[in-house]
Known about the structure:
Strand content: 15-25%
Radius of gyration: 16 Å
Low-confidence stretches: none
Shape: globular
CATH architecture: 3-Layer(aba) Sandwich
Number of helices: 6
CATH class: Alpha Beta
Number of domains: 1
Order of helices and strands: EHHEHEHEHEEEEH
Amino acid sequence: xxxxxxxxxxxxxxxxxxxxxxxxxxxxxxxxxxxxxxxxxxxxxxxxxxxxxxxxxxxxxxxxxxxxxxxxxxxxxxxxxxxxxxxxxxxxxxxxxxxxxxxxxxxxxxxxxxxxxxxxxxxxxxxxxxxxxxxxxxxxxxxxxxxxxxxxxxxxxxxxxxxxxxxxxxxxxxxxxxxxxxxxxx
Length: 186
């Protein structure tokens, strides 16, 4: 049975691999040379309250072939955020090949996550968007089916009929079907 990874599992990984996690986070920062139509990328949306867990998400995506984009370190983004921020993010989402939304209970309070997901929904097919959910418990997933979150597939870990070992997959809970994450990211 596929399951979401808990926040404590993510935190344990980040704590054990702190140097590698920082390097991965920095390598996911924007540079014009790394992102173009010949080198497709995956836009990663997340709440700033969940930044401590982001290296885990980036590691999973990178290990499965993604070139993740995160807004941290993107020197095109002004500080504090402004209309220019929205313009840059809108263009970046539109040009991305895939969109992954790291979803926790903090996401609903974010100003940016619902907006970014809405932009992705308007410019991509549902097949190009996946939620990467995490919570306190791997079995409490009812919140993922509420409102608009129920429209999207989820990145989860577990058994898949085509593989002997547990794998990361993009799971459609409505049809009970899944695609290997590495295949989805191609």
